[in-house]
Amino acid sequence: RAKEGQKSYQVYSPAVHTQFFKRLQLEQTLYKALEKREFVLHYQPQVNINTGKITSMEALIRWNHPEQGLLYPNKFIPLAEETGLIIPIGGWVIDEACRQYKLWQQKGYSDIKISVNLSPNQFRNQDIVTVVKQALDRHNLNGHWLELEITESIIMQNVDNIISILHELKRNGIKVSIDDFGAGYSSLSYLKRLPVDRLKIDQSFVVDIPVDPNAEVITTAIISLAHNLGIGLVAEGVETDAQASFLKNRGCEIMQGYLFSRPLPVSGCDKLFNGGKSF
Ligand code: C2E
Ligand code: CA
Ligand code: CA
Ligand code: CA
Q1: Per the database record, which ranges form the EAL domain (predicted)?
Q2: How far apart are CA 170 and CA 201, in angstroms?
Q3: Would you call 167 helix, strand, or coil by DSSP?
Q4: ipTM of the predicted structure?
Q5: Using an 8 Å Cβ cutoff, are 120 and 155 in contact?
């Protein structure tokens, strides 16, 4: 009995209180962060291993928290999704990525695309097509430079609705990729029906090449699946030469990961472009 007593005491412990208030505080500061312009985007190149050229830059959000410093998305995106703040924050991401991309285009960094991550809620709660088209118009950009990254979990929702949204994005030239592919538990049959352009092989498989034979088998299967369906591929989380050559040998030529570059602030990206860096 003493144990149970201890347990219920735990619920009211100062530690739990502290946790609760920390979260509440985070929620309040998150709410104000947009207004105070505390979010920034970093960008990570996707590289074609055969040409050594950058094919795309993926925008990844960070929060310059006034007290806690630079926070990574795992610290605040789940909260933003729970509270619905992901809608305005996600809208800002789309606009900011387009704005930055336009600047790069004007500087002559051509033939590079821009990739933006979308949360499932952004598909559910708003007219995502309008939001994206307005951002493109505002910055005078052609949709064909933009790629949206969605996760498999999106498909668990209203499939017919998702399909019609994807078709409308496609009509505007916008590309769509499935992020973290293979990590979810959705059925493969949806792939036939969804007009998606690329699969991003989840980094949990890539990280275990060549240590875990299962990771190699799954990666190889995803690559041949994409090839057979005529869908493009990107491998993410590529950190070693061994991983890169494994992927290259199996026909996956677009890669992203620390082996090439970490996500960089805009200043770092400009250096990368100016140096005409080839990988
Ligand atoms: P993700 O879209 O799967 O992005 C890849 C994550 O892996 C990024 O973490 C990136 O920094 C990291 N990464 C890249 N290369 C390597 C590597 O070689 N090794 C390892 N270990 N990691 C690598 P980050 O920036 O912390 O983002 C985490 C997640 O947060 C993203 O996963 C994405 O789901 C989400 N996220 C980021 N930005 C946004 C955004 O603007 N909107 C939404 N809705 N979600 C975002
Ligand atoms: Ca992504
Ligand atoms: Ca991913
Ligand atoms: Ca991920």
Answers
A1: 23-277
A2: 22
A3: helix
A4: 0.98
A5: no
Protein residue with its CA nearest to atom 34 in ligand 1 = 117
pLDDT, tens only, 168-208: 999 999 999 999 998 887 678 788 888 999 999 999 999 99
DSSP 8-class letter at 150: E
Which residue in this structure is represented by tokens 């050594």?
Answer: 52
pTM for this structure?
0.93
Which stretch of DSSP H or E encloses residue 20?
Answer: helix 14-33
Strand partners, 40: 62
Ligand nearest to the CA of 177: 2
Whole-number Å distance between alpha carbons of 45 and 255: 9
3-state secondary structure of 193: helix
CA dist., res. 162 & res. 153, Å (int): 11
Helix axes 266-274, 86-106, angle to 10 degrees: 30
Q: Which ligand is nearest to the CA of 60?
A: 1
Least Cα distance to 97 among 152, 69, 138, 153 occurs for 138
At residue 151, the 3 state secondary structure works out as: strand
Q: Is the previous residue joined to 73 through a cis bond, with omega within 30 degrees of 0?
A: no
Q: Ligand 1, residues 62, 116, 117: which to mutate, most atoms within 8 A of Cβ?
A: 117
Query: Quick check: 155 and 186 in contact, CB under 8 A?
Result: yes
2: left (phi over 0), alpha (psi -120 to 50) or beta: alpha
